[in-house]
Automatic annotation (TrEMBL):
This is Alpha/beta hydrolase. It comes from Streptomyces prasinosporus. Residues 47-292 form the AB hydrolase-1 domain. Keywords: Hydrolase. Residues 309-349 are annotated as: Disordered. GO terms for molecular function: hydrolase activity. PANTHER family: ALPHA_BETA-HYDROLASES SUPERFAMILY PROTEIN, HYDROLASE.
Amino acid sequence: MSPASVLPEVAAVRIAEGERLRSVELPGLTLSVRSRPPARAGLPPALYVHGLGGSSLNWSALMPLLEDVVDSEAVDLPGFGDSPPPDDGDYSVTAHARAVIRYLDTAGRGPVHLFGNSLGGAVATRVAAVRPDLVRTLTLVSPALPELRVQRTAVPTGLLAVPGVAPLFTRITREWTAEQRVRGVMALCYGDPGRVTPEGFRNAVREMERRMRLPYFWDATARSARGLVNAYTLGGQHGLWRQAERVLAPTLLVYGGRDQLVGFRMARRAARAFRNSRLVTLPDAGHVAMMEYPETVALAFRELLAEATDSGDEGDTGGPGAKGARGPAADTGADEAVDGGTTAENVRG
């Protein structure tokens, strides 16, 4: 019996005005995909991948700001948002990347403008590295790439990866209200939680209440955290920094100066690792700049898009998405076993 067939009754997931939500059946998993109709037909496709504990809702502020330049879809990773757990219980970075790749291959939407935040940034990096034919451009908001010195504020999140911690945390916080949980998440993820509107807070509380009724909520979060930690320990060609160096797509990197989960100091290293990158730093942003400063992120992406389009017009047909530019096969499960002010600048390797 599939996990999707034994779920309790929970409230419907929120759909913002103008959005659509549908389920896509794939081998071994079901993905929920959120979309907005583009301003006109024929626009290039974009796909957005959320972070740990998030969902496709995390992109609802950004997607309408880009509806005149891309055809937007945001995916709920397995076990998050409205997507049920994967049949095999695999929440590794490779498994999440495989889910994204399977969706793009099945939908025939590639190459896409690929966006990723936090865990989704690590997933998107792996997708872009192993399947360059599927990625036109790559936009990473506070990507969760390995750090030698993790910030103290990020330690509690990392501890979720330790077996037994998630059930313990669940017991300790049993009496917490949804409002208390949301305030804690916002204090951790936002540079200034005061920027959240009352309506935005109410929506977040309703979504938290919905998620807490799902029996697999903590398991999916803990296993994904464990998968991310495991990915940090990989070396060689499967290491995330090595894969960042293999990315061919023009890349936009967005880092927040008040990020408590991904070190702001990693921005420079990322700019050096991605061979054709554009770095945007937001001193007042936290971990989810696309939710805190969506207009700024949208503008930065438009500049990346314009630059990438100009390069394509000049006859560069060997880059991502070009016919005949198919990359290597996607990672398999075995790989994981071995497996505000703004500042912008272009950084080329």
